[in-house]
Amino acid sequence: MSTTTRTHEKAGASTHPAIEQAGKLVNFFDERIRASNWLKRNLRKVFPDHWSFLLGEIAMWSLLLVILSGIFLTFWFKPSMAHVTYEGAYVPLRGLVVSEAYASTLNLSFEVRGGLLMRQVHHWSTLVFIAAMAAHMLRHLFTGSFRKPRELNWLVGLSLLVLGITNGFFGYSLPDDLLSGTGLRIVEGGILAVPVVGTYLSYFIFGGEFPGEDIISRFYVFHILLVPGVILALLALHLVLLWYQKHTHWGGPGRSEKNVVGYPFFPMYMTKAGGFMFIVFGFIIVMAATIQINPLWLWGPYDPASVSAGTQPDWYIGFLDGALRIMPAWKIDVFGSELALSVLIPAAVLPGLIVTVLALYPWIERKITGDTREHHVLDRPRNVPVRSGLIVGFIVCYVLLWIAGGNDLFASVLNIPVNWVSRFLQLSVILGPPLAFWITKRICLGLQRRDRDRVLHGRESGVIVVSPEGEFTERHTALSAAEAYTLTAHEHHVPFDPGPPTDKHGIPNPAYKKNLRRARISRFYFADVIQKPTTAELSAAHERHQEIQG
Predict the structure, then answer these.
(1) Angle between helical axes of 115-143 and 315-326 (0-180°, round to 10)
(2) pTM tops 0.85, yes or no
(3) CATH number 1.20.810.10 is the correct assignment for the domain at 42-248+272-379
(4) 513 phi/psi in degrees, rounded to 5
(5) What are the pLDDT digits (tens) for 210-230?
(6) How far apart are CA 156 and CA 238, in angstroms?
(7) How far is Cα 486 from Cα 476, in angstroms, rounded to an integer?
């Protein structure tokens, strides 16, 4: 007893007072809320180590930079459409009557120290934020990480993407320059195309006849307060769900649906995430300092009688502009009123359809496959060729619409009529996605065949041997057990069997027609999938390999 006491006294004498007080504070809270076990358990939570998981971090750190740069801009920006005479530092616009919003943006750009850099940091970090979210969502689609139990987190992520695009458009419209005003005019046209309530919605949003006097101040409240608040709340929910449900990981030796292989949150992941944050910050700031974006002093203030030419909206809105440009001039009469389908379909129906299909896709695929199990191991895109083909077809359609948003630019650069460009894009949007789907599916099936051959026969060594009978054979190198396991760790997909139309007593199956429809869709998904080798095939291949080696 005395020896133990002396040892503690000796250790206590060498302890720094600050460390001792910190220990007492931690002990105080631990005795009351029992937090030590909770902290230990969560600080040791495992995170996978793969580059694709960094896409979500890029979105998170760029969002942080959006917020920090936005706070700086709010000190000088004036969200008002009141008319003032510009007398600032930019000489070509001096004496021109502009809105306070436009004048304050010019002052930010030319008279506030670091203002132009902060404007460009804000703009570039927004573009990176939305691009990283889009890539992050595509990663989830390709790998199947939207499946149970992550359907709710998929909806949260999709909501974050939609809100990010919406808030980006709000911020894009605030300076009241000719480019943003033209974009608002296009939005007003889409609102007016809504049947019955379009006119009322336009008057309500703009506070009267376009452009009104209130739209900038209204967008400003949404841009800096309401939408960011919802985004931060959804981001917190996303992180909580991610923490609770644990990460997905790629298949391989030691990886299953019941564990996560990676590094602990503290200190490994926290250190790497902190360093990665500064990399993202530095990359965006270098872009903002060297690449000019949105030089609104060149566009001039918004004038309803003028339209900017040779300019396009930010990339995340460009596909809607492209859809408007190549949509045929369709219109129909409904009860004596003209319904402008050429505006309604690309401006309202198309984005609504895209968001609805994306939101429901986890349940659509579950219905097709009948798979209600929890999944924590990711799919390799090649092993689900139909899903991968559908995603690539969607990407091709999006890119073509995005290109259509600059049809006038391509026409002027290529020196061809703009109508030719539009006609080509109209045909491409119809034919391109199915062609992309078919090519992607064939590539995935080819990769599956290659993986199957590698598992059965090994890797080509380039060494040719001659048998006593004169037969030339290439010697193959057997795969390691870990590599072979990785190539065969995916599930065995088979089409759904609808069963017989009647039972053994001749009584009709009431669900047969429903099951038959599901079976047809299931065959579309899985009928061509190359199945992984069976145990018998592996044994036969191993014997053949031994004969060749011998």
Answers:
(1) 70
(2) yes
(3) yes
(4) -60, -40
(5) 887 888 999 999 999 999 999
(6) 6
(7) 19
